[in-house]
Design a protein that fits this description.
Radius of gyration: 30 Å
Number of domains: 1
Helix content: over 70%
Strand order of the largest sheet: 1-2
Number of helices: 6
Distance between the termini: 59 Å
């Protein structure tokens, strides 16, 4: 009976050891910083963003100027003219808000442009990580940059440089 118990415990331990999983880490920030296309994409997005921000600010400035002119002409305006000018000012302010939403909103032009430019880079990284994982038998690969719960991880399991090498950007 004693031998049977020991044998079953050993069998259980061997089965548990056979299910051990291999883990790896990547540092997405590190990988992206070492990809020239990512830096160029960020620069391009920054330029487009500044251009669009200038357009929005120009409309907002125009609305402010209209309001200042309205304030200075207020004593000379009839009730009908006041209403008309107020409506024009509100319309201009609404125009600025609509343009801002169009460019910078959750489904705005900047979001769409960022997604269209970043998607190929992200896909390339994903494919490289997937190939390395399949080759080396990793069941899980965590991103160190976004995994806030990782306090310490051995540099031995960081495969960021392997991912860069697989993509043709050796470090």
């Amino acid at each position: 009976m004693k031998r049977m118990m020991i044998f079953s415990c050993l069998l259980w331990l061997c089965a548990f050891a056979g299910m051990a999983q291999k883990f790896a880490l990547i540092d997405m920030e590190y990988i992206l910083k070492n990809i020239p296309a990512y830096e160029m994409t960020n620069e391009q997005l920054s330029q487009v963003s500044q251009k669009w921000q200038g357009e929005v600010e120009a409309l907002q400035q125009e609305a402010q100027n209209m309001y200042k002119n309205y304030q200075s002409d207020l004593v000379f305006l009839s009730a009908e003219m006041k209403t008309k000018r107020e409506e024009e000012i509100v319309k201009k302010e609404q125009e600025a808000q609509d343009l801002k939403r169009k460019y910078f909103g959750p489904e705005g032009e900047l979001y769409k442009k960022r997604e269209s430019l970043m998607k190929p880079i992200q896909d390339e990284i994903y494919n490289a990580v997937k190939e390395i994982s399949e080759d080396k038998g990793y069941q899980i690969v965590w991103d160190r940059a976004s995994a806030m719960s990782i306090i310490f991880a051995s540099p031995k399991i960081d495969i960021s440089n392997e991912v860069l090498a697989k993509m043709g950007y050796s470090k």
